[in-house]
Design brief:
The chain is built from 12 helices and 11 strands. The strands form 2 sheets. A 6-stranded mixed β-sheet has the order 6-7-8-9-11-10, with helices on both faces. The longest helix is centred in the middle third of the chain and has 17 residues. It has 2 domains: 201 residues, Alpha-Beta Complex (inorganic pyrophosphatase (n-terminal core)), CATH 3.90.1640; 105 residues, Diaminopimelate Epimerase, Chain A, domain 1. The protein is globular. By secondary structure, the protein is an alpha/beta fold. Strand 10 and strand 11 form a beta hairpin. Bound molecules: manganese (II) ion.
């Protein structure tokens, strides 16, 4: 049995869409909400004959990866998050590039020599790699309307990945993958009345409408921090709302804090778009923190550390 292990956001889902369009395969799908990245440990090494892993940090899955490799299971690993030391194994093939302007779907697009480039463009927009997405869209000659449509699709799929658990989401990521992989070109999905694109579009706008009334808890020259309530809509919208803030004020770092039911915050940090560094350095200073230079997060920030977090964020970018 082949296992496809992938992040439940746009980048993870659309990396797999490209791979499975190129090489259709019956597989067991392992995924979850965007923040659920301890995925590789769910592979049953007694049953697995091969494994593909997409868009989850190798460093965070290293023990499970070593278990898989110890069973001589061929593994293909594509990612752009912190990798740590990559194990040496003849069973392991990796494409790992932590450049802040690439993402897993762009790496898969290169690997497949642009076979499903429109999916990669949607994914890059979804991962907020706007410049890279626009460059690729220009290179393949998309017009402005097509580009805007792929951007919207990427944002909506990315939006769908945010939640405390899969129950918060409009579509479980595995189900969304199965719907999307039916289309060789995402522009066909967008054209289709009532398709998942249009369902997500409607949901996205309803949630974003609510986010506009978010409470601002810090706003200075270098950072802006906002707080969202403990509700499914807030958990869904937190990431895309963060990207939206980042895009609207490109010299500032942004953090969106969503209250959890245990009185901690889920924190989503975006480095300034004009200075895409340091977000991970801020977050790893707190328990349950991690991520990339441009975008990082903390799963459970105690409220007692809120001021320390704001100070750390501010000094990082001052
Ligand atoms: Mn990604």
């Amino acid at each position: 049995m082949h296992y496809d292990v992938f992040n439940g956001d746009a980048d993870g889902i659309l990396a797999l869409v490209q791979l499975r369009l190129a090489e259709p395969k019956e597989s067991t799908l392992i995924t979850g909400v965007k923040r659920d990245i301890q995925l590789l440990q769910q592979v049953d090494t007694a049953k697995a004959t091969s494994v593909t892993v997409l868009d989850v940090s190798l460093e965070k899955n290293i023990d499970a990866l070593n278990d898989v490799l110890a069973q001589q299971i061929p593994t293909f690993y594509v990612d752009h998050h912190r990798s740590g030391t990559i194990p040496e194994s003849s069973e392991l093939k990796t494409i790992i590039d932590t450049d802040a302007n690439t993402c897993t779907s762009l790496l898969v697009n290169e690997y497949l020599e642009g076979a499903y480039v429109n999916w990669a463009i949607a994914a890059a927009f979804g991962d907020n790699m706007t410049h890279s997405a626009e460059q690729l869209a220009f290179k393949v000659g998309l017009n402005a309307t097509q580009q805007a449509q792929l951007k919207a699709l990427g944002i909506y799929i990315n939006y769908n990945g945010y939640g405390r658990d899969v129950a918060d989401l409009h579509f479980p990521p595995a189900e969304l993958f199965k719907k999307l992989v039916k289309y060789r070109d995402p522009l066909a999905l967008i054209q289709e009345t009532g398709s998942v694109f249009h369902q997500l579009e409607k949901a996205y706008h309803q949630d974003m409408e609510q986010a506009l009334s978010a409470r601002v808890i810090a706003d200075n020259d270098v950072v802006k921090v906002v707080e969202l309530e403990d509700a499914a809509w807030a958990r869904r919208v937190s990431g895309v709302f963060g990207n939206d803030l980042a895009n609207s004020s490109t010299d500032k770092a942004h953090a969106v804090l969503t209250l959890n039911d245990d009185a901690t915050y889920t924190v989503s940090v975006r480095a300034p778009l004009n200075n895409k560094q340091g977000a991970d350095e801020v977050c790893v200073q707190f328990p349950t923190g991690g991520g990339r230079a441009g975008a990082a997060g903390i799963n459970q920030l105690p409220q007692s550390l809120l001021n320390k977090f704001i100070d750390t964020l501010t000094s990082q970018y001052s």
